[in-house]
Design a protein that fits this description.
By secondary structure, this protein is α/β, with parallel strands linked by helices. It folds into three domains: 3-106, Arc Repressor Mutant, subunit A; 117-182 and 292-315, Periplasmic binding protein-like II (D-Maltodextrin-Binding Protein, domain 2, 3-Layer(aba) Sandwich); 186-291, Periplasmic binding protein-like II (D-Maltodextrin-Binding Protein, domain 2, 3-Layer(aba) Sandwich), CATH 3.40.190.10. The chain contains 14 helices and eleven strands. It is rod-shaped. Pfam families: HTH_1 (PF00126), LysR_substrate (PF03466).
Length: 317
């Protein structure tokens, strides 16, 4: 009889009910027996496996006997002072070893198992373009095995409180008590225009600036109400021609028109490499600041890997 076919009725049995058959099969198998099988296979002997698992050779032998009942195959044949696996055991080892590795990777809360784990860092597209190159280099230096994923921000507080994402980096303000944050950096506000804008040749022409068409950035969050109020007091008569939540759209519009906009200076430094943009000097505006923070669920700090990633990101800025 072909021994490779013996596993079919034991592990791969299919029924018209589909998936429930898998659970029925697994319920009838003590997964500890598979660990013992792997130990005997890898260490090529019952005595050696017993030492590794801190069990008696008798307990190992009894477990092998139980496996022989499940799988109609001797699995291991005595050879000298050790054992050698049968062809069926070799076939079985291929799948069991992969399965145990997957389980170890999933349960790796201490980060000692060198397999990939995914860490999700949600950002807006513009913030991601600004900070993720720095974050990627820092994390890969300390945790080269980690896989990073950058999902969008939809409902920030819900994403964090429901553990739908590990981290969020933005200038938002959270009221949920389970969400904690640390400021990564503080940015100054600047007034921008396109290269060649006539205002660049004028010195402190406040009236001309007020009369120019402005693009208004609409950041979300109550923590910006004070900033918006102060900017409004600086430019009480400015003419708003366009509003947008998308800072990329604003930069593109300014670069292709005579409109002006107020944005954080780091975004100006980034976007000026893509579009012909210039800064208009306005000292009182340049004193205004905005914070960009890393946000996370406070219970995530129980995870040593995620805790370490947060520290790495904070130290990168």
């Amino acid at each position: 009889m072909d021994s490779n076919n013996q596993i079919e009725p034991c592990l791969s049995r299919k029924s018209s009910e589909g998936k429930p058959q898998i659970f029925t099969t697994l319920r009838n198998i003590d997964l500890n027996l598979l660990t013992i099988f792997e130990a005997v296979y890898v260490h090529k002997g019952i005595v050696n496996a017993a030492k590794v698992l801190n069990l008696t050779p008798s307990a190992i032998s009894q477990s092998i006997q139980k496996l022989r009942v499940i799988f109609p195959d001797p699995l291991f044949i005595r050879k000298g002072q050790g054992v050698t696996p049968t062809a069926f055991a070799m076939h079985l080892h291929e799948y069991i070893s992969q399965g145990l590795e997957s389980i170890l990777g999933a349960l790796d809360i201490e980060g000692s198992y060198d397999k990939q784990r995914t860490i999700t860092i949600a950002t807006t597209p513009s913030v991601g373009a600004l900070i993720l190159p720095v974050i990627y280099r820092a994390i890969k230096t300390h945790y080269p095995q980690l896989l990073l994923r950058n999902p969008p921000i939809s409902d920030a507080e819900n994403q964090l409180s429901q553990f739908q994402t590990d981290l969020i980096i933005d200038n938002m303000f959270c009221t949920n008590r389970t969400v904690q944050h640390h400021v990564l950096f503080t940015d100054n506000m600047v007034l921008i225009c396109r290269e060649g804008n006539p205002l660049l040749s004028l010195e402190d022409d406040r009236e001309t600036i007020d009369n120019a068409a402005h693009v208004l950035l609409l950041p979300e969050g109550q923590n910006f109400s004070g900033l918006r109020q102060r900017i409004q007091e600086m430019f009480p008569d400015r003419q708003i021609s366009f509003t947008s939540y998308n800072i990329l759209t604003i930069a593109a519009l300014v670069a292709n028109s005579d409109m002006l906009a107020i944005i954080p200076s780091r975004f100006y430094n980034l976007f000026s490499r893509c579009w012909p943009l210039e800064k208009l000097p306005f000292p009182s505006l340049n004193e205004e600041q905005i914070d960009f923070s890393i946000h996370y669920n406070k219970f995530s700090l129980r995870d040593p890997i995620l805790h370490g990633v947060i520290d790495v990101i904070r130290n990168a800025f």
